[in-house]
Structures are given as structure tokens and as C-alpha cells.
């Protein structure tokens, strides 16, 4: 029966010492002490039952067995280095499939996509959008960007990017814009409000934060998805409830107004990465997201 290989740490210490022909230089290259390299080599010699080095003045000289093992280790470690580099390059070249809600993709991500491609050219990003329930465990998905509230599941690595804030918004073209100007949030209890069926509690959450009774609000026209709701607000059809992140550009350009500000909801925009997935590309995307938000 074949014996197990000696310790890989011992083989590595020997390979470096043999290649550099110096225990001291090997210790420096491996960022360990001279004694640590010497002990690894002695352990290896004891396990193999043969001397690998002879003393040659103040230096070391490889024995015949040492030369044979040096050549074998050099070839083996060289092959391992090549294989690891190939794996890294293949991982970096593989598509990184990011799933996210369609409204987030259309209103925030796509306007910044060109910037992302310039700043992270090595990230082969593919996008998958849905307005339904997102499944961060779906096969093939590298990561999911979405709003959610903790606790986070144990089988996912969740990186919070920004806290969610929501508030009422309307277009300057809205027929009631002049009537709402300069009024307190209380006036919205007399206003027909636009809402989305994908987030039915949004208006109620905002009302409670404003010390208003949710029952006093009149939720009128409803839309299936948040994207359609925001398009309706931009068209001047009424007052909508929206995440600040998704209307920030519209507010900056004056296409929407938010006179009552925004309140936190307890949800966060987070990057959800399956525990099985290589984290390096996710970390690069996370850094970019944090910078943009």
C-alpha cells in the first residue's frame, strides 16, 4: 500500500531551500524563521529516512536524493502554480450573473452601467431582471442585488450596501402640485395616492413614521410593479411612494419633487452572494456599489 505524501509544508520549505541553496534565504522568502525551515527539512529527512543536504563549508550541498526530490518538487509545484493561475483566470473570465429587480435595474443600475464597465473592465457582468420574487439561490446566479430586511439566511453572504429610505414624490406637472406646495405631510390624507401591489405596506410604513394613521390615506390607482408606478408619477398622474435611491436622479434633475423627505424602513439594499461562490468578483462589485451609493 502506497504511503501518504510527506507534509506539503515540509516539501515546500525543502523546495525553496534547495532552489535558493540557502536555509536563510528560504526563511526570508517564506516569511518564517531560519529554525522553522530547518525543522521542516529535518522532519522531511526523518520521514524519508535519507539525508537531503550535506554540509559544504558554511553552505549546503544537495545529496543525490536531495537533487532528485528538488527536481520532482520543482516540477510539481510549478504545475500547481500553473493550474491555480488557470483557475483564477477562468473564474475572472466567467460571466458574473447579477439578478436584481427590474425597477432597480432600469432606474439606477443601467444609467451607471457604462461607468461600471470602465471602472471594472475585468468583471464580465451579465444582468437578470425580475419584478417578481427574487431567488438568490437560483442556479447560475452569482449574486443578487435587492432590498430586504434582516435576519439574513446562514447559507448566503449578505453585504448591506445602503439603508432603504422611502417617501412621497410627484412631478411638477401634477395638477395638484401647487396645492401641495408648502403643506405639511397631513395634506396627503386628502390626496388620492398612487401605489404598487408589489409593496402594499409602503404607504402605511411611511404614514406611521410621520405619526399619521395609515387608515386615513386614500390609496387610489395601483400598479403591478414599482417601475410603472414611478413612470406614472413622472407623467404627472399623482403622488407615489418611492425608494429614495430609485428617484435620486429625477430629484436632482427636477423631474420629481419630494417636499416631505424620506424615512428609513428597516430594509437595506444588499448584495446577496451564495456561500459557494467565489467572493473575489463579488467583493469588486461590492466596492463599486458602495462608492456609487
Describe the fold and architecture.
- It is a single chain.
- The protein has 293 residues and is of the alpha/beta class.
- The protein has helices spanning 8-20, 23-30, 34-48, 64-93, 102-109, 113-119, 177-180, 202-209, 226-234, 244-252, 279-292; strands at residues 53-56, 59-62, 96-101, 125-130, 143-148, 156-169, 192-196, 218-223, 240-243, 263-274.
- Among the domains are: 8-92, Arc Repressor Mutant, subunit A (Orthogonal Bundle), CATH 1.10.10; 164-267, D-Maltodextrin-Binding Protein, domain 2 (3-Layer(aba) Sandwich), CATH 3.40.190.10.
- The protein contains 11 helices and 10 strands.
- The protein is rod-shaped.
- The protein starts with 7 loop residues before the first helix and ends with a helix.
- Residues 6-63 form the HTH lysR-type domain.
